[in-house]
Design goal:
Strands 2, 4, 5, 6, 9, 12 and 13 form a 7-stranded mixed sheet that branches. It is globular, with a radius of gyration of 13 Å. It is built from no helices and 13 strands. With 128 residues, the chain is an all-beta fold. 35% of the residues are buried.
């Protein structure tokens, strides 16, 4: 049984940092691209960052470039998202997901449909 479990969400002030973690079990972690997505109330889920199976290629949404860093640890089957200089507009539920395919980017946006395994999310709230 595949399990994807996020952690690390919290309430912080603007300008502060957080690191999200995602532990994956039940699949061959090194065979999967991994992504972080977020969904704010009343908005569609959007791709934030993605990393390929080997960790050699990454994608970032324009809104987080230069502030967020995605990384993966194969020894721990864990995905991370380091979030710096947080802004109130970063407030959302953050989801981790695994894709057997590549990080598919269409018109500059990370596609959701290749991701077949999702976590339950971890809440990030940034106050001004």
């Amino acid at each position: 049984q595949v399990q994807v479990v996020e952690s690390g969400g919290d309430g912080v002030q603007a300008g502060e940092s957080l690191r999200l973690s995602c532990i994956v079990s039940g699949l061959a972690y090194d065979d999967y691209a991994m992504g972080w997505f977020r969904q704010a109330p009343g908005k569609e889920r959007e791709g934030v960052a993605c990393i390929n199976w080997s960790g050699t290629s990454t994608y970032y949404a324009d809104s987080v470039k230069g502030r967020f860093t995605i990384s993966r640890d194969s020894a721990k089957n864990t995905l991370y998202l380091q979030m710096n200089k947080l802004k109130p507009e970063d407030t959302a539920m953050y989801y981790c997901a695994a894709s057997r395919a590549i990080c598919l980017v269409q018109s500059g946006v990370l596609a959701l449909f290749p991701f077949g395994h999702w976590g339950q999310g971890t809440q990030v709230t940034v106050s001004s």
